Every structure is written in C-alpha cells, then in structure tokens.
Amino acid sequence: MERTAVLGRLSWRFATVLEVTAETDQTHSIVLDAPDWPGHLAGQHVDVRLTADDGYQAQRSYSIASAPSDEQLVLTVERLDDGEVSPYLVDELRAGDRIELRGPVGGYFVWRPTDAVPALLVAGGSGIVPFRAMLREHGAAMSAAPIRLLYSARTFDQVIYREELLRLAARDGIDVSITLTRAQPAGWHGYTGRVDTALLRQVSWPPEEHPAVYVCGPTGFVEATANALVGLGHDPGRIRTERFGGTS
Ligand SMILES: Cc1cc2nc3c(=O)[nH]c(=O)nc-3n(C[C@H](O)[C@H](O)[C@H](O)COP(=O)(O)OP(=O)(O)OC[C@H]3O[C@@H](n4cnc5c(N)ncnc54)[C@H](O)[C@@H]3O)c2cc1C
Questions:
Q1: Which long-range contacts (C-beta less than 8 Å, at least 24 apart) are formed by 31-38?
Q2: Which residue range or ranges hold the FAD-binding FR-type domain (predicted)?
C-alpha cells in the first residue's frame, strides 16, 4: 500500500550509461547520467525497466550504490546465470546505452548522517550494494556514528568493492568483517563459514546498546540472519531488512 502510494508520484526517466566497470567476474557497476535526478538517501533503490524491440518489457529493482553526495548515480548488478534481466545489465550494457529508471524508492531501509546510534550492517553477496552508499555517506558527512559491517561472500574473488572496503576498514569508526563461505585464499585472516549466531554475537553490538541493524541480501540469508539476531536479544523493531529475492 505504502509502496504503491509512493510509486504513484514517481515517473520513469531515461538515464544514459556513462561507464560500466567490473567489480568481480559476475558483478558490474553501471555509472549513469540521470538528468534531473531528484536526489536520494543512502539505502534507497530504483526500479529499472528494459524494453525489447518488440515492446516486451521487464522491470527489476536495484539498490543505489552511490552516496547521495556522489556526483553520479551508480548501480551494481550481479549476474544470475539463469536470470532474465541481470545477464543483460552485466554482459550487454555499454556506455551510451539508455535505460529507464524510476525512483528513488523506499524510505525504510535508509541510513542518514544524522543517525547517531551505532549501526550494524549485515550483507550477503550483492546485499553489500546499499551499504556501500551508506558507508560512503558516512565518510562524506564525517559522521561520528560507529558502524560495523559484516559481509558474507562465497570467495575472496566474489567480494564486491574489495579495495574500497579494505580502505574503509582502516578508517576510525568503521569496522569491516568479511566471512568467506566457500573458499579462502592462503593467509586469509578474516572469518570463514556462514553468518550464524556465534559470528553475529562476536561481531555485532550487544543488544543493550540498541544498535540500528540493517540486513540485506538473498531472501534466505536475510531471514536466517534476522532470526539469529532476534535470538541474540536484538529488538525486532530495530532490525531493518531488504530481501533481494532467491533463497540461497
Ligand atoms: C529492493 C531490491 C533491491 C535490489 N538491489 C539489487 C542490487 O543492488 N544488485 C543486484 O544485483 N540485485 C538487486 N536486487 C535483485 C534484482 O532486483 C533482481 O532480482 C536480480 O537482478 C535478478 O533478476 P533477473 O531478472 O536476472 O533474475 P530472474 O529472472 O528474476 O530470476 C532468475 C532466478 O534467480 C532467482 N533469484 C532472483 N533474484 C535473486 C537473488 N537476488 N539472489 C539469488 N537468486 C535470485 C529467482 O528466484 C529465479 O530462480 C534487488 C532486489 C530488490 C527487491
């Protein structure tokens, strides 16, 4: 109901692809020129609409990877091999192409620089995308709110924004923990295995500190993580979730 009401005020606009850059083998960032972009909050997403020559249309949601203060709008898309839209966005899109956008959408899964409480961000796979916007905004606004990021990826090569996250990890007030679930490179000092109660207990703020908690990724990951956090005593009302679909 709320989403319908909000979307009613939004219209489709064309954006031109300025650049496509590889984040990993399966994930590309798409830099867009979106004239008259109204601005967004870190954590919001857009709807992307593609139209084939025969008029067939497909539409999917993508989190905004750029911070509100960044000059350009960036989306980051992971290719699902059996997917309809993501293989096109990752493999076929070129500078100069135009896509349709609607947004920004969503007022719930957002982080504002005025949020002063500690924040825990838990990402699975491409669920890191909205958190990149939040972390960039945190830096741009020189926020003093402490943030802990726990990011689960299958392998080191599949860690999206790897260099940027390693730089962020060196900044005061930001802790970055990465867990690799399938394989680890020699000398890996991060965590291994899936996000579970034990890892969350180790990495997260204690519930008594009333952190704001954000969980984003595939549906199964989000549900298991949110349940584990509630089991640890976190207030369900302070856990915001964004489900990207799928079950893994
Ligand atoms: C609010 C929101 C924000 C999103 N932000 C991003 C983003 O920033 N980057 C990004 O890459 N994706 C994001 N997604 C997911 C995106 O909308 C698409 O679902 C995804 O790109 C797959 O689309 P597709 O057409 O390629 O696959 P489809 O043809 O729709 O699906 C193919 C198969 O993959 C499964 N599937 C669908 N989505 C996922 C998934 N996320 N993980 C695992 N399996 C899945 C389906 O059940 C189906 O079996 C977001 C989704 C939502 C709701």
A1: 31/72, 31/73, 31/74, 32/72, 32/73, 32/74, 32/75, 32/99, 32/101, 33/72, 33/73, 34/73, 34/101, 37/73, 38/104
A2: 10-111
pTM of this structure: 0.95
Q: Cβ(60) to ligand 1 under 6 A?
A: yes
**CA nearest ligand 1 atom 10, residue:** 77
pLDDT at 246: 74
Whether CATH 2.40.30.10 fits 12-105: yes
Q: Burial code of 27-36, b = ≥16 C-beta within 10 A, e = fewer?
A: bbbbbbebee
Cα 244 to averaged position of ligand 1 atoms, centre (Å): 5
Q: Which ligand 1 atom lies nearest to the CA of residue 217?
A: 41
Check if 12-105 and 119-244 are the same fold. no
Distance 126 CA to ligand 1 centre (A): 9
Task: Indicate the domain borders of the chain.
Answer: 12-105, 119-244
Probe ligand 1: pick from 27, 223, 244, max atoms within 8 Å of CB?
244
Q: Can you list the residues of the chain whose pLDDT is less than 70?
A: 1-9, 247-248
Q: Tell me yes or no: is domain 119-244 CATH 3.20.20.140.
A: no
Residue 1's pLDDT is 43
